[in-house]
Design goal:
This protein has 5 domains: about 70 residues, GIY-YIG endonuclease (3-Layer(aba) Sandwich); about 60 residues; about 180 residues, P-loop containing nucleotide triphosphate hydrolases (Rossmann fold, 3-Layer(aba) Sandwich), CATH 3.40.50.300; about 180 residues, P-loop containing nucleotide triphosphate hydrolases (Rossmann fold, 3-Layer(aba) Sandwich); about 90 residues, Alpha-Beta Plaits (2-Layer Sandwich), CATH 3.30.70. The longest helix has 16 residues. It is α/β, with parallel strands linked by helices. Helix 2 crosses helix 3, helix 4 crosses helix 5 and helix 19 crosses helix 20. The protein contains 20 helices and 31 strands. The structure holds adenosine-5'-diphosphate and zinc ion (ZN).
Length: about 750
């Protein structure tokens, strides 16, 4: 454990470990707690630490894992009065690059540096090397008595110089372990120790490179050029779904691997992209290291360690992979860069896409952003020349984009109690007649978003949140999608006591499935949503089944929108295209455009003629018009002009503060106090406080302030001053600070 065992190994191998200075030293250590800076610790005699070393330190009565940080210590501190570092782990220190990155993220998001650093070291069991694996090596010679069992062992192990594990050899030869041990005792085998097998094999950049031509070739050449040139460079691959963007960035990865550098690929929904991992393996001969929250802890530890030691060359991961302390990172790819899943809204509020650009700048290496519907921010960076944009305007091969049409729901209403227009139903019928697949998309889990009593009008609401309880019929529950509160679906109204008069209002995917089954009783239908029983494993299986054509009609939430390739899917129906348009979010139009393009892009990936039907009550809305005209350029131009006029991101800056407390009055008073403490600066103004649209979450009352600044304003200094001059945080009051917010609830 810790440094002691490695000291021993070090001296065994005659390595010279850096000598510890004679004097007692004091070092700053970041601890994983919400405190403003590093704490000072004494370095015990004989322990070697340097900035970046991962250590264990006491804080109060508890031990924490921390990182030795940069910076001077207070000379006035008497090392003898400081508590000593408990132990130093035997793992490479976090690089200067990584430490600078942590400091940068902490300063930008105004999060405690220890909480940011914790994201880089969060697998404690990975901090010490894995034990060596015991193995047997054949030394030559024959056993004293050649029994049939011994002969079988020799047959296997006596030929090649490959070491065997004791149990592996016994198993392969079909003998008991005692046979092996007997032979070892006779000096036929010697016991050796081998490093544990790597968590993933090394990817080979030239394993199966495809032929790349036309626009793909130009795009790849441009990006590979920037990799060869070295240094920071940001490129944006803007290409329609199925245009071959992945193949293009695989070229960039190959070039980086050839240069001996590590690669990070960020994906928004890694738990569901087994198809991606397979595709990577087909191209590079080995899977990338995986990193996401569904990975078993043991696997996470191995991947973390592999990344730090350089054994793992490529990681494909969710946003948290950005904080993996790579040994020598040389390229970051951000696939689906527009995806809201890159924003973390918990503890440290950060946008992994934006922070990845910072990571690349600090590390002085290239970054590639990839999307069929780039964010307005990235488009603007492309226009201003900060990013180099490469375009892939058409699908690869003979696949064509689907024909998109709007269904005006005012003119073609569904049957009473239904949500699917006759036009969409007819299209589904034709599609399944042709033995092709249809996808119905509705971004709403469960059966119905609201249940009410027909007699007294009572609406079922979460007792702790200001949100309706959503009925989930498969689970016979009504659930709060904010906090997870749930109860058995009631039969009687709790208000007036009337039995059997509760009605479901509005559709969720389960309800659409019911309607589909009524119209197409013989079709095979699958509902895909994140609350599918059986979790990620089941979802992966279902997605594979869909890809193989084992379903006729898929009804899904945005889970099916991302990245999947369903060869037989030729019809996509959007049940409610208007859903995200009017929620007070400045990005509502952009988000809706992106989501609808993404979902309709699931159709026609393999050359079959395909269609998209978008049900809407607002066919004249610019988003709907942009989608059907296929003129994304015009849509973005308008959107960019509007943002510029309103000085909204990326032309201006926003930060949001949510003040919450156990009582409404406490939250409001504190929020008002903060507002009063805001410095007077030209170029930055504070809006609010106002009760948040989600006024109550988990029993906490919420008020929000929105800080709006011009692009060149010092938002961080402003926010810091506001918090410092504001009222002392007392009682149940909590403040959540979100720089560059994506959510306005
Ligand atoms: P995107 O990432 O833009 O959605 P993909 O990279 O997934 O597009 O490409 C779409 C399809 O075309 C995939 O099935 C992919 O295997 C195939 N494809 C793309 N480029 C090539 C190429 N150069 N050679 C062979 N197949 C390709
Ligand atoms: Zn709730």
């Amino acid at each position: 454990m810790g440094k002691d065992s490695s000291d021993l190994l070090g001296s065994l191998f005659g390595e010279l470990l850096p000598e510890a200075p004679a004097q007692v030293r004091v070092v700053p250590v970041l601890v994983p707690l919400p405190v403003p800076g590093a704490y000072s610790y004494a370095v015990p005699e004989g322990m070697y630490v340097e900035p970046g070393s991962v250590v264990q330190v006491p804080v109060g009565p508890r031990q924490h894992i921390g990182v030795v940080w940069d910076g001077e210590n207070d000379d006035k501190l008497d090392p003898k009065k400081l508590r000593p570092i408990t132990l130093a782990f035997d793992c490479p220190p976090l690089s200067k690059e990584m430490r600078d990155f942590v400091d940068w993220v902490s300063a930008y998001t105004l999060s405690p540096p220890g909480l940011v650093a914790r994201m880089a070291i969060r697998a404690p069991a990975a901090l010490d090397p894995e034990p060596m694996v015991e193995a047997l090596r054949y030394l030559g010679g024959q056993p004293e008595r050649l029994t049939p069992a011994r002969a079988r062992v020799l047959d296997l192990a006596g030929e090649e110089e490959i070491p065997w594990t004791r149990s592996g050899l016994a198993h392969a030869a079909g003998v008991s372990m005692s046979v092996i041990d007997g032979m070892t005792a006779q000096g036929i085998f010697e016991t050796i120790f081998l490093p544990p097998p790597p968590v993933v094999a090394r990817p080979d950049p030239d394993y199966a490179a495809p032929r790349i031509e036309g626009p793909q070739k130009e795009a790849a050449a441009e990006i590979v050029e920037s990799i060869k040139a070295g240094g920071f460079a940001a490129s944006l691959i803007d290409g329609v779904t199925g245009s071959g963007k992945t193949e293009v960035y695989f070229e960039a990865i190959a070039e980086t691997l050839r240069r001996g550098k590590q690669v990070l690929i960020l994906l928004p929904e890694i738990a569901l992209t087994s198809a991606f991992l397979e595709r990577f393996e087909n191209r590079f001969g080995a899977k990338p290291g995986e990193w996401h929250s569904d990975l078993p802890p043991r696997m996470r530890e191995k991947v973390w360690r592999g990344v730090v030691t350089g054994e793992v060359r490529v990681v494909a991961g969710a946003r948290s992979a950005l904080f993996l302390p790579f040994e020598e990172l040389g390229l970051i790819i951000i696939d689906e860069e527009h995806d809201p899943a890159y924003k973390q809204e918990d503890r440290v509020f950060y946008n992994a896409r934006d922070m990845a650009v910072v990571r690349a700048r600090i590390g002085d290496f290239p970054i590639v952003l990839v999307s069929a519907t780039p964010s307005v921010e990235s488009q603007v960076n492309g226009l201003s020349g900060r990013y180099t944009t490469v375009h892939l305007p058409t699908r690869f091969g003979d696949a064509a984009l689907p024909d998109l049409h709007l269904v005006d729901m005012r003119r073609h209403p569904p049957q009473r109690g239904g949500f699917l227009s006759p036009i969409l139903l007819r299209a589904i019928a034709k599609t399944i007649e042709r033995k092709e697949q249809a996808l119905l998309f509705l971004n709403r889990r469960g059966y119905a978003p609201l249940t009410l009593c027909r007699v007294c009008g009572h609406r079922f609401q979460c007792p702790q949140c200001s949100s309706w309880l959503v009925e989930h019929r498969f689970k016979s529950q009504i659930q709060c999608h904010q906090c997870g509160y749930h109860e058995h679906t009631p039969e009687a109204c709790p208000e007036c006591g009337t039995l059997d008069h509760l009605v479901a209002c509005g559709p969720g995917v389960e309800r659409i499935a019911e309607e589909v089954e009524k119209h197409f009783p013989d079709a095979r239908t699958i509902v895909m949503s994140s609350d599918l029983l059986g979790g990620v494993k089941r979802m992966r299986l279902e997605l594979e089944a869909i890809a193989k054509g084992e379903a006729d009609i898929v009804i899904g939430t945005q889970l099916v929108a991302k990245g999947h390739n369903f060869p037989l899917m030729t019809l996509v129906g959007i049940v409610d295209s208007d859903i995200g348009l009017s929620n007070g979010d400045p990005r509502a139009a952009e988000r809706t455009f992106q989501l609808l393009s993404q979902v309709t892009g699931r159709a026609g990936r393999t050359g079959l003629k395909s269609h998209g039907l978008l049900q809407t009550f607002q066919p004249q809305h610019p988003v709907m018009q942009a989608i059907v005209s296929g003129d994304a350029g015009a849509f973005y131009e308008r959107e960019i002009a509007e943002r510029e006029k309103a000085i909204l991101p990326p032309f201006g800056r926003l930060a949001s503060l949510i003040v919450s407390a156990d009582t409404r009055a406490d939250a409001e008073t504190h929020a008002r106090g903060l507002r009063a403490a805001a410095p007077r600066v030209t170029g930055i103004s504070v809006l609010g406080p106002a009760e948040a649209p989600l006024a109550l979450v988990r029993g906490r009352h919420r008020f929000r302030l929105l800080v709006h600044g011009r692009r060149n304003s010092d938002m961080q200094a402003f926010l810091k001053a506001m918090l410092a001059n504001g009222p002392k945080q007392r009682g149940s009051v909590q403040i959540q600070l979100d720089v560059d917010p994506q959510s306005f609830l």
